[in-house]
């Protein structure tokens, strides 16, 4: 009997597996088709959304599902159309990772990777809520973040600094706290970029191949945490996954997101990442910014038709419905999902009190045409310069920055520098300490700062993740201020030439050299190499030749190579931090001087050499000349063994492992009893293939 039931269970299990593998990815599951047992807010939101959508015309529904075009056709990064019969003005979707993009009087917050380095839920939550309130008070409805993809699999990936770190659990917890903070502030949060958006190079063409287990255990995992937290929107990415664009990938959007994970919000494409009207069937609910642009053509030097009136989700979607190829139920679901997100975050209560956006991302003028790029429409107020900065934002930024700074090396109790008798002559070295001569590099990606113009301390990376600086405390300014207060003395040298007599003099005659180094990266690119900018390796080595006490402070978007000098005994201490926003210098100097303990932990592993990092791939899709099996895809090779998993699996010693970070506190251990455990944890079977 026991054997019989054993076989019965096996039979049922295999039928289940067979069925599970043949579950169709269509039709797109309808949001709110059953009530949520765990989140009554969604139930109430769906009731309201269904009622709202029930008497709308097809055109009105489509006004919700597509943007108006770009570059000033609306005030925000993305804008949906109005629905006049309902007195509903279009939604404002605005970027994100460091603050409200493209407007003045906002706080530039530390980057998400800095929040990840905190490993501190409350501080992560406060950063998000403070940011969310600034967005809300500028008139934004949809906050285009947080990013929990890229995961950081490719160490040189250009957007790793916009997410929380190379571990799905950390990404998930930090991402979920961030969603909570943003949505508690009354904004729709958008989890992005779904999925495998691991590199900037050829980001609109790259095809990431992934096996099912790695997909779920590494990349989907953090999105599952966001969904559990009630995230109202998710953004499919530019790239393809296993041969299909994310934005029209029924397996990813219909099956994984909306079916398996029970996602109740709406999906919104990354900007011009939609490739077809049938994306609606694949599970895409909103197309942004709404017009059709071939980004591959643009990236290859082609022109950029910003407001061409062609849209996959406008007229083409109307035709799709009228011709019967797109069911009207799908359109109803798209509109209902968007409105459910709106009611869930209580925008119906917030918007009447607060009004529409008070800024235009695309103009600095006070007034201008409503439809800027075509010079049409009434002249309206564009920028009201509303100051949304608060003490809460300032405190949240400072706390994130302090807790992101990570102590990697501290010989001979060099840090903190609080003994004036030991350290009264201080020299500041390294270009990364000083203000950038180009103001436009301190913010808004629209203002044309090229990589070449990055010539000073960075408060954030570049691209859509920027916010406009109102004031920035550079490391130089903060050291200067501290020295003035302490009545000690400071010299500095801005250049990188370590044989310059002035460099030698400045670096020699000091009690300590504070050497600032960094690396910078912007969206749509990846780091070209893993070395420090502005020849900082030479500066460090030069200083070590003439002085025995050199403290190195590195600001970076991810792991960099420290091998040239890390073991040099004259490098007495090393601090490492992701971008810290406008308070960077103050936070670093407060930690250097022990005003606050140092408690950051690395949100990624720092390898010793290039052989241990996952390369950026140049393989793109579709390229019919390359047989599928011949594609040398980096991710597939990485499989499950990403970051510390790789080092453990291959038994490779990293320079500093994920989670590494010391403090100034001293611990005494006594009477330690050690029991050896043979099997530390379950061994993972090798990934398939
Ligand atoms: C980025 C998104 C961003 C969008 C709107 C895209 O290029 O990948 O993260 O939200 O632009 O600016």
UniProtKB/TrEMBL annotation:
Pathway: Glycan metabolism; cellulose degradation. Residues 1-19 form the signal peptide. GO terms for biological process: cellulose catabolic process. Keywords: Carbohydrate metabolism, Cellulose degradation, Glycoprotein, Glycosidase, Hydrolase, Polysaccharide degradation, Signal. Gene3D superfamilies: Glycoside hydrolase family 3 C-terminal domain, Glycoside hydrolase, family 3, N-terminal domain. Belongs to the glycosyl hydrolase 3 family. This is beta-glucosidase. It comes from Trichomonascus ciferrii.
